[in-house]
Amino acid sequence: MPAFDPDAWLAGEGISSPLPESIPAEPVEEFLLDVTASADATLRIGEHAIPMREAWERGEARSEDGAVRVEILTPHKAWVHVDVVDGATGKPAPSRVHFRAPDGRYLPPYGHRHEINDNWYEDYGADLKLHGTQYAYVDGTFQAELPVGDVYVELFKGFEYQPLRQRLRIEPGQRRLTLRAERPLDWRRHGWVTADTHVHFISPQTAWLQGQAEGLNLINLLASQWGDLYTNVGDISGGLSGVSRDETLVWVGTENRQHLLGHMSLLGVKGEPVFPMTTSGPSESYLGDPTWTTLAEWADEARRKDGVVVIPHFPNPYTEVAADIVLGKIDAVELNMGAWPIQLHEWYRYLNCGYRVAAVGGTDKMGASMPVGAIRTYALLDDDRPFSFEAWAAAVRAGRTFTTTGPLVDLRVEGRRPGDELQLPAGDATLHVEARAEAVVPFHALEIVVNGEVVAAEASEQGSYTCTLQAPIRVPGSAWVGARVASRMQRWIGSPRVVAAHTSPVYVVAGGEELFSPSDATYMLTLLEGGLTWLDTLSIPATPERHARARRVFEDARDHLHNRLHKHGHTHAH
C-alpha cells in the first residue's frame, strides 16, 4: 500500500497532483493481509509464530521473540445505507465514490470490487481505477460495510460539481449516512450540454449510470470489430437506447476503422448500421481482408442516415482523413489531449485552409482506467430547443462546441460565438474579443488564438478557478479565432489527461475570401500522395472497380487542393 497521510489528503493532496500509484522502493516493513482463521490457528511469518486467538481478543499479538507484531485492522463494522444528494435540489445524485480506512485501504460499496483490473477489456462495469485510486459508480443510494471510527470519503460528479473530501465518524450500530454533492457551476442552465463522443465495451445501462455520475448528458457508445472480436454490436438499435432518461442519453453507434487510412466514428446513425465496421486486415479487420471500402463511403452513408461524422483520436491514423476533411465529409475531430500540441498543430492546418471542422472531446474509454467524460464535448443548443440527440448533433455540425478535460470556456468575437461567421470588408481589421473560463480545478492561462498564434492571454502564476479576458485583436483579413485554456497540471482526479480546453473557432471572412495557407495545403498533398502509394502497392484490392473508387477519393481531394493553389498563384508538382 502507498503511504496515506489523512490530513494532507483532506487538505487536497492528490486532487490536482494524484497520489503515488506504487509502493516506495525502500524495504517494506508492513504488510496488509486478508486472513480468515479459526481461533486456535497460528499465523507463521518465516520462523515467527503468532497465536490468532490472542490477536482477535486483544486486537494485536506478537511473536514470542517480539520480532513480528500483528494488529487486527478495523475489527468492528457497521452496515450503512448511504444517500448521495444534490446540495441544491436534495434529489439523489449518482456519483463516483471512494471510501478508505485510516490505513489507506479502499472500502468499496457492496457489489463492487476491492481490487479493480484496469487493462483493456477488463472490469468494464461500474468500477474505476484512476491514478491508482479505486472508485465505485453509484446511483445515489447504496449500501456499504464501513469500519467503526474514522472513515475517509471522496465524491466526484463531473466538471461542474466540487470534488468532496471528508473525514466521517462511523458510530457502532449506525445505519444511515448522507453525503451532499455541491454544484458551483451550472452551464446546462445557459443552454450547454455535455457529451463523450467515444466510449467502448460497457453496456448501455452501465454507460447511462457512469454518464449520470460524471455529469454527462450524452454518451456515444461505439460498437466495433477487432479481428474476430465484435463489441456492443448487439446493443445497436438504430435509435436512442431505451435506457436513456433524466437528461442522460445513450446512443450506440459505430467506430469504423482502417489501420492506415484512418478511424471514423459514426454517431447517431438511424436504422441499419454502416457495415463493414473495419476493412483491410489487421489489426482492425480479419487477417487478409481486402480494401472493401473507404472512409468517404462510410461518411456518405452515415450522413444519409442523419449521422454525425467524427474523426476519433485525431490525427492518427491519418492518411485518408486529410482527403475527407478537404472534401467536406467530416463534421468534427476529437482533440483528446493525449498528444495535445500535435493535435492542435494538425487541426490548425485545416482551419488555416478554411476547412471548418468542430472540436469535440471523447475518451476512447476501453477499460476501468478511464472515466467516461474525462475528455468531453460541450455543445451549445439552439435557443429554446429542447435537448435531444438531434439538437446536440445540430450544435456539433454548426461548430458551437468546446472540448475540455476540466475547464469550461466561452468565447465571443464581436458578439459572435464559436461556429458563427463574421463577414468583413477586405483587409485587416480590429475585433473585440471576450472570453471567460471557470473550473473546479485550477488552470493557469486563458488564451486567444488567431490562425494558430496566441494574440492575447490572461495568466495566473498560482492557478485560478475563474478568468475573464477582454481585448482588441488584429486579424490579417480572413481568419479564425478560438479560445483555449492551458494549465501546468498534467492530470487530476477528474481526468488522466493534461488539464486543458479549446473552443471551436469563430470564422472571419474578409472580402468574401476564405482563409487559405498554401504551405499547409502542400502538406496535405503529401499525405494524399502517401495514401495513393499505399493503395497501389500494399493494399489488397477487393475488385478493380472498388480500387478505382478508393483512388478517386484521393484524386478528388488532390484536384481540389491543386485548384485552390492555382487560384492563389501557387503550383505543386506531382
Can you walk through the features of this model?
By secondary structure, the protein is of the alpha+beta class. It has five domains: 6-71, no CATH class; 77-181, Immunoglobulin-like, CATH 2.60.40.2190; 187-404, Metal-dependent hydrolases (TIM Barrel), CATH 3.20.20.140; 406-515, Immunoglobulin-like (Sandwich); 520-567, no CATH class. It contains nine helices and 29 strands. It has helices spanning 6-10, 52-58, 204-213, 295-304, 319-326, 340-352, 389-398, 518-537, 544-567, and strands at residues 42-45, 48-51, 60-62, 69-71, 77-86, 95-100, 127-130, 133-138, 141-147, 149-156, 164-170, 176-181, 192-199, 218-226, 229-231, 249-258, 262-267, 308-311, 332-334, 358-360, 376-380, 401-404, 408-413, 421-424, 429-450, 453-475, 479-486, 501-503, 506-510. Helix 6 (340-352) links the parallel strand 19 (332-334) and strand 20 (358-360). The radius of gyration is 27 Å and the shape is globular. The termini are far apart. The model has no long low-confidence stretch (mean pLDDT 94).
Distance between the termini: 61 Å
Broad CATH class of the largest domain: Alpha Beta
What portion of residues is helical? 10-25%
Q: Can you tell me the CATH superfamily of the largest domain?
A: Metal-dependent hydrolases
The helix count comes to: 9
CATH architecture assignment name of the largest domain: Alpha-Beta Barrel
Uncertain ranges: none
Q: How many strands?
A: 29
Overall outline:
globular
Biggest beta sheet attributes: 17 strands, mixed
Strand content: 25-35%
Oligomer: single chain
CATH T-level topology of the largest domain = TIM Barrel
What integer value in Å does the Rg equal?
27 Å
Please give the domain count: 5
Structural category: alpha+beta
The overall pLDDT, averaged over residues, is 94
